Amino acid sequence: MSGLDQLQYLSWVLYLVVFGLVLVRTIRRPTPAHVDMTLFFGAVATVIVLTTLSTKFHAAPSVIADDISAVALMALGYLLLRLVRDFSEVPTLLMRAVEVGMVASIASVLLVPQPIPAWLVLALLAYLVLVIGYDAGAFGRRAADTSGVTRRRMQAAAIGSLCVGLVLFVAGLGLVDADRAPVWNELSALLGLASGACYFIGFAPPTWLRRAWQEPEVRAFLSRARQLVSLPEVRDIVQDLERGAANAFGAPAARIALWDPDRQGLLVLSADGAELPPRLGQAWAEQRPTLVSDTAHGDVDGPSLLGVENARAALSAPIGGHDGRMGVLVVFAPASPLFANSDLELIQVLADQCAVILESKMLIDNSARVRAREESARLKEDFLSSAAHDLKTPLTSIVTQAQVLRRRAERDPTAPADRIGLDRLLQQSDRLKNLVLELLDVSRLEQGSLIGEREEVDLTELVNTLAQHDAVGWKRVQIETPRPVPASVDPPRFEQVVTNLVENALKYSPLQTPVLVSVWSANGEACLSVRDQGIGIPADDQPLVFERFHRARNVDDRRFAGMGLGLYIARGIVEQHGGRIWVESTPGLGSTFNVALPRGGPEAGVSETAPAESPNL
Ligand code: ADP
C-alpha cells in the first residue's frame, strides 16, 4: 500500500469514526444540530464507502452506487450550511440559492450522460467550494465570538471545512492540470487527512481533550470564586458566581436558583427572589445537567422573568451540597449550543464549584452565628456580674445606714433625727437610682429607642440653664458660649450628654482646677467641648472609653466610683442624633471631650473660630 493510500485510508477512518459517534449521539439526543451533523457526516461516509468499494477494491461498478455517491457529494455544501444555520443566522435568500444549486447539480450529474463534460465538473466543484468556503467562514466567525471549549471546537470545524473546500479546489486543479496529477493527488490526500483530523477533534473530541480545553475557563472561574466566601452577603456571592459562569461560557447571562424550604420553591436571589420557571428547573427534578432549547416555548416569560434578554436556550445543572440538594445553575444562550454535551459537562463542573463555595459560606455564617450567640451569652454574664457588683455597693451602704438609724431610734426614740445619717442614706439612694437609670438607658439604647422627639434648641442657652440649675455642682465650671448655636436635639437626652461629660470632668480632675465648657458653630456643625486638667486617659484606652463597662486603667475603682456606662450612653445619644463624639487627652494633663452635631437653622454653614487650643483656665 502506497503512502498516499495510507493517508487516504487514515482520513476515511477518521470520518467514519466521527460519523459513528455523531450517529450514536443523535440517537441518544436527537436535537436539530445533532441530526444535521449526522446528515453531513452520513453523506461523507456514503461517498467514502462507495468510492472505496468501486476504486480501491474494484467491486463491480454499479451505476446506482455511482449515482448515490454523486448525490451525497453534491449535497455536502448544503448539509454543512444546515449545520451553520443551527447556531447562526443564515440569510433565507442564500439558503434558497444553495438549495436550488444543490438540486440543479444533482439533476445534472444524474441526467447528463457519462462522461460528464469537464466544464460541468468544474462548475459543480466551484459551487461546492463556494458553499463550503462560506460554511468555513461562518464557523470561524462563531469561533471568534464564543469562548472556551465551544470556541476551540468551532475553530477545528472551521479549519476542517476549509480543508474540505481545498480538497475540492485541488480536485478541480487536477482536472485542469492533468500533467501534475500525482502532486495534486498527494496534496488532496494531505488536506483530506487534515480535514478528517479537524472534524474529529471538532465534532467528536476525546474526553481528555475536552477536559484540557475546559481548564482555562474552570481555572478563571475558580480563581475569582476562592475570594467569594469572604463577601458578607450570599446574594453578592451568588451574583459573582453568575457572572463567572456566564463568562466561562461567553453567554449573556447566568442565574443561580436556591431551594427555599419555606416557600418550597427554587428562588433566584439576583432576580428579587423570583421563582425559577419549572422548565428551567428540570435539572433540579432530574438531578443531572439538562439543555432546554427554545426557552420561550411553554414559558413565555421564562428568561425575561429573571431579567435575561435574548435567550433562546438554557443549560442547567444541579448544585448539590454535602447535605443534599441546594439549587440549580442556569446559563442562558442566544441559540441552542452546537456542542451541547461539552457545555453540559462544563456547567456541571461549575455547578459543583458553586456548591462548594455556597456551602462554605453557609458553614462560615453558621459558625459566626454560634460565635455571636456565645459572645452575647458572655456579654450578658459580664453585664449581670458587673451591674450586680456596682449595685451592691450603694445598696449595702443604704441597708447599713438604715440599720444604724433604726438602732439609734430604738435606743432613744426621743433623740433628734440624725441629719448626717439621713443625708448619707439619701446620697447612696441617689447613687443607686442613677445606676439603675443608667442600666435602663443601656437597654433602651440597645433597642434604639433612647431618643425621643427632637426640637430646634439653642445649645448656648441649654448649657447656661444647666449651669444655673446646678450652681453648686458646677462651681468649678467656666462657660464659653459667645453666641447662639441652634441644633435639632432631644433636649433632655442632650442635657444628659452634657451633664455626663461635665460630671466626669469634675470627677476626674483635682478640686482646685477649672473645667471649661465651650459651645460654637463650625462647618455647618454645632460643637461642644468639655475640657479639664485632670488625670487624662492613656492613649490606648481613649478609643475604648466609649465602650460598655470600659474604665481606663489609670482609674482606681475605690477612688472614682463608676460603672463605665456614662460615655457609652453619651455616644449612643450623640450618634442617634447623627453626630460624633471623641476625646483628646494627655495623661496627667487633662482631657477634652468633643461633640459635633449636624446643625439645622439659618446660620448653618457659617463658621466661627473654635476655642483656643489651650484655653486660659
Ligand atoms: P464612669 O465614669 O462611670 O467610669 P464613663 O463611661 O463616664 O464611666 O467613663 C468611662 C471611663 O472613661 C472612665 O472610667 C474613665 O476611665 C474615663 N474618663 C471619662 N471621662 C474622663 C475624664 N474627664 N478624665 C479622665 N478619664 C475620664
Could you explain the architecture of this structure?
The chain has 617 residues and is α+β, with helices and mostly antiparallel strands. The protein has three domains: 3-205, Rhodopsin 7-helix transmembrane proteins (Rhopdopsin 7-helix transmembrane proteins, Up-down Bundle), CATH 1.20.1070; 213-366, Beta-Lactamase; 455-598, Histidine kinase-like ATPase, C-terminal domain (Heat Shock Protein 90, 2-Layer Sandwich). It has 16 helices and 13 strands. Strand 2 (265-268) and strand 3 form a beta hairpin. Helix 8 runs parallel beside helix 12 (340-411). Residues 601-607 and 612-617 have low confidence and may be disordered. Adenosine-5'-diphosphate (ADP) is lined by residues 500, 504-505, 508, 532, 534-537, 545, 551-552, 555, 562-568, 591.
The mean pLDDT is 86
Shape: rod-shaped
Q: Over all CA atoms, what is the radius of gyration? A: 44 Å
Helix-strand category: alpha+beta
Given as residue ranges, the uncertain stretches (5+ residues, pLDDT < 50) are 601-607, 612-617
> Could you give the order of strands across the largest sheet?
3-2-1-6-5-4
Major sheet characteristics:
6 strands, antiparallel
Which percent bin holds the helix content?
Answer: 55-70%
